[in-house]
Amino acid sequence: MTHVPVLMMEVIKLLEVKSEGIYVDATLGGGGHAQAILEASGPGGKLIGLDWDLEAIQFSERRLKPYSERVRLFQTSFLEIEKVLEECQDWIPGEGSQAGPIRAGMSVTPGGVDGILFDLGVSSFQIELPERGFSYRKEGPLDMRMDRRLKRTARDLVNHSSVETLSGILRTFGEERFAKRIANTIDRERRKSPIEGTLELAEIVRSAVPRPKAHKSIARVFQAIRIFVNQELDQLRVGLERAFEFLRPARRIGVISYHSLEDRIVKGIFRTLEEEGRMRWVTKKVVKPTSSEIERNRRARGAKLRVGEKVQLK
Questions:
Q1: How many Cα atoms are found within 13 Å in the side-chain-facing hemisphere of 62?
Q2: d(C-alpha 120, C-alpha 236), whole Å
Q3: pLDDT value, residue 300
Q4: Are 114 and 21 in contact, with CB atoms under 8 Å apart?
Q5: Nearest to residue 108, comparing CAs of 127, 132, 89, 128?
Q6: Using an 8 Å Cβ cutoff, are 218 and 70 in contact?
Q7: Domain that holds residue 180
Q8: DSSP assignment of 100-124, as one string?
Q9: What's the number of domains the chain is made of?
Q10: Does one domain contain both 16 and 110?
Q11: What are the residue ranges in the chain where pLDDT is below 50?
């Protein structure tokens, strides 16, 4: 399998990756961005990687083995960045984080890191594994859990949610105009027998909407279910704010989003940080992949990169 990182050169440039720096890849995935950061920060740079997907951690451990002395990987959500950085205190300078006001009653780890990257959404690493159930193009079980320790699967949601709940999920997290019609069709089919597989769900959605709209509706339905199962937007709201606290002054945080729901959250948090005088925008306009990158990597089509720099508190 190949795992092509999106906007890789722009990430390295805009995060100002340098030797001796300490960087956090908060959404490790297949380790492509992590490898690029390690190469750009050599020989002394260090990388702390987080991912709640065990298979992603295991794959990245193999990929990053040549840099093993400069890498520490953790199977956890980026919500746990405080605990992770506490475990990495021997790596992190202790001059004080300049964190400013703290949310949710968290404590601040002394010192800070030199750059943080979030590459949101489902990774190509996960999509390429049919047994994970993320792809509507490949037969697999309705799972969609990024962390298999989560109890609720996509199958549970599809087969046991009320029509009203399911319709609301599709409308809110998929921005799907045919949400009610799709939810009613799912309900009709699941009354006959439980809906088990990805292709079965895709075909049910296809049968519920006008044919020219089917492909986009299927994609939105799978997006909505995945986001809800993994509580991605709530995690992003909390995790992005929390990660920013551990960035050193004059250092940068970058976020790659793939759909409007994520991007609105990122813009909103960055705008608030700017209004508080705690961050300045590095990317005045969103950075998008070039046409040549999209040709090489279809996943790059919807990618949007935004970068901010932490302001030194006075």
A1: 6
A2: 9
A3: 76
A4: yes
A5: 89
A6: no
A7: 130-231
A8: -SPSTT----SS-EEEEEEE-S--H
A9: 2
A10: yes
A11: 1-2, 96-110
